[in-house]
Amino acid sequence: MAVAVRTLSFRDAINEALGQEMERDPRVVLMGEDVAGGATLPGFEREDAWGGVLGVTKGLVQRFGRERVLDTPISESAFIGAAVGAAATGLRPVAELMFVDFFGVCMDQIFNQGAKLRYMFGGKAAVPLVIRTMIGAGFRAAGQHSGCHYSVFTHMPGLKCVVPSTPADAKGLLTAAIRDDDPIMFFEHKLLYDLQGEVPSGEHVIELGRADVKRPGDRVTVVAIGRMVHLSLEAAETIAAEGVEVEVVDPRTVSPLDEDTILGSVRKTRRLVVVDEDNPRCSLAADLVALVATQAFDDLDAPPQTVTAPHTPVPFSPPLEDFYVPTSTRIVDAIRATL
Amino acid sequence: MPKLGMAMKKGTLKRWLVAEGGAVEQGKPLLEVMTEKINAVVESPASGVLGRIVATPSIELPVGALLALIGGPGDSFPPAEELGGAPTVAATAPVPSAGAASEVLASPAARRLARDLGIEIAQVPPSAPGKRITTDDVEALAEAREAVRLTPVATGRSIPFTGIRKIVAERLHESLQGMAQVTISREADVTGLIALRERLAPGFEAASGIHLTYTDLLVEIVARLLTEHTQLNATLEGDAIVVPDAVHMGVAVALEDGLIVPVIRDAHCRPLREIASDRAQLATKAQDGTLSLNEVEGGTFTISNLGAFGADSFTPIVNPPQCAILGVGRIVQKPLVVDGEMQVRATMWLSLTFDHRLVDGAPAARFLQALADRLA
Fold first, then answer.
1. Taking the complete model, does pTM exceed 0.90, yes or no?
2. Which residues of A touch chain B, with CB atoms under 8 Å apart?
3. How confident is the model at residue B150 (pLDDT cuts 50, 70, 90)?
4. Which end of chain B is more exposed for a tag (fewer CB within 10 A), N or C?
């Protein structure tokens, strides 16, 4: 396999994974609101595709046609339900739930159908479905377009949940997700789409359920999810100037969770900070702290710290939104609190 | 746990002399017990098989505690845990109470590391006052201790501070902590004492083979004198100053690894011959480690004679619950002015340490005065 590496944006890395998997497997189809846009329709010949609201799927309809890149009505319950059914009957759909905040209207299809079919049919049914969805605040998009909510899906058995933080991880994890036979929620932080990073050009698969140590250190373990990985790396740089070497662990897949890597890191550093943009109650942050408290209590030298959003919807007011999202300053403070 | 003496309330199982499952015979040695005062071999109360050992060595147990079960061959015995075999009080290394440890602000990892290294968490200094103790702090202390241990000036052998040495240490420290001890000293003309011994020694030797010592004479003289100075023969028991009718004289005997004080009973009224004979036997037993508990308890006063080791005078420490001890130095020939004339006389320093809570200086000095008169 080719291992050439070049710089791509997070957006283009996802697009490349989709294109490569569609080339590789004719059963892979895309569904969603404006994933094709007007492109290829009569009268729109000279228009490029919308490629989804932020252009992630741009160009795919020209390559694979409207039979495989399906624009859907604005009815999440309908097209997510269609995607679950298509997955259960032989296709490998990649559906786009534009903003995760819209999950309410299609939760039955995801939670009560997609996630349970394999179990309810004694393993004889599979739902090889990927639901790509945008998460994250900081886009001035107000409360109904800015949440993270991956904790909600992590709570649900039968779903796998992926939250990539880099272009390379996005490509490798999405490729693995498309090839996986279980329904997968794939969470893309909208502020990461323009992030540039080195991405292998050929086939690139990252096994689901494997955390990645984004920065080695021996003094404090910071487990960060999605965009928070970058803020944590910033915080780690800041505090490294004081001689404190922080290890930043990126779970990448939050369900299933790579407990061994997290526990191994905490056993080394004896200190844990969890950084999570999601709301704090019954959240991944709480879950990770519980994991460490129950499995590595005697390894701790300090109470675990969490840096999360507050327990509110994302505010529209820009100053309040900036206050809402964790910052590297808050992460540095949390790291200090463990020392 | 057998009661080996009147005052014994608890004892430490030192070791089993028969393994679990081994045959035992009534009256044959079964185990060793260490009390506050002595080591003793305990004999098996029955014959048969030592079916189940319940008590583990080094554990302090109250009198009456179950140590083991003896039965017949082929009998089945319940496991030790069911018989209350869990150790209750560690005798040599007291575990810090849970209360004390939990009051210390320390991380779980620090507590575990301290436990593994045998460091008491309360002894670990935090990096700053009020800060939680972390593994770094525990490691720092362990390294500091290791550094001390490895410092070249400290080379030498390490002797475990346990057993009789530890008991002696604790009792002496307790004595000084618990009493208001005062020592008064005087030099005494002991010409009379020397003459007395020279007169009596050959007869003792010939009659019973006993080598009469100055200590024997001092035991007799002091014991009889104490019947007139009863407050120095008293003991403090709770809220009462108890003045015994008898004088049971303790005589300090130096051992290889410590000190033991066997007791000559009724020294105030028994003949010198018996006193000398008792003292010789007790000294031998003390050296052999075969003293029984009733031979070391119940003393009402103690004499410690370091004259044989060339000491002139010293401040002895009272042996609780007694209230006084007499320290005796060596006898030296020296010029002394007697009746306005320079004479060569034999003298000895007498040092009386007493508990000032019970006795005042004047009566103590009067006792020494009276003793000096008897020795002159």
1. no
2. 270, 297-302
3. low
4. C
